[in-house]
Design a protein that fits this description.
The chain is mainly beta and 126 residues long. Helices cover 10% and strands 47% of the residues. The chain has a single domain (9-124), classed as Jelly Rolls (Sandwich).
C-alpha cells in the first residue's frame, strides 16, 4: 500500500517543453512561448496519471488523440471543443481512448486537470 501523495499548487514542477516527446515538442514549445504550461500531478504509482494544464486566451490545441481514455475537468476559464461544445469552469468531459478532438481556449484562458487510468501516448491528427 502506498502513502498518500500531496501536491501543492504553489510548488509544482512545470514541464520543460524541451523534454516533451519529439512528435509533440514543437507544439509544447509553441504553447510555452504563448504562456501555456503543464505539471504532472501523479505518475501512475497511485493508480492513475494526472496533469494540471494552463493555457492563455485563444490558444488553439490542434486535433489529436490519446491512447487512453481521459477525464477532462475544467477548473477555470473556458474552451470550445472542435465539435462546437463549450466547456466552462465546473464542466467535465469524458473522452474515450483514440477519440480525435481539439479545442480553442476562451477569452479568459483555461485551467484544467486531465486524469487517466493509464499512461497515454498522444498523436497529432492535423
Amino acid at each position: 500500500m502506498s502513502d498518500p501523495l500531496y501536491r501543492h499548487l504553489a510548488n509544482l514542477d512545470w514541464e520543460d517543453p524541451s523534454r516533451v516527446k519529439p512528435g509533440l515538442r514543437d507544439l509544447a514549445r509553441e504553447g510555452a512561448a504563448a504562456g501555456a504550461r503543464r505539471a504532472h500531478l501523479t505518475d501512475g504509482t497511485h493508480g492513475f496519471y494526472s496533469a494540471l494544464n494552463e493555457m492563455p486566451p485563444h490558444f488553439v490545441v490542434p486535433p489529436h488523440r490519446h491512447s487512453a481514455a481521459e477525464l477532462f475537468v475544467v477548473l477555470a476559464g473556458s474552451c470550445t471543443v472542435a465539435d462546437g461544445t463549450n466547456l466552462v469552469a465546473g464542466d467535465v468531459a469524458a473522452i474515450p481512448a483514440d477519440t480525435e478532438y481539439g479545442f480553442e481556449v476562451g477569452g479568459d484562458g483555461l485551467r484544467f486537470v486531465v486524469v487517466r487510468a493509464q499512461d497515454a501516448s498522444t498523436t497529432l491528427t492535423d
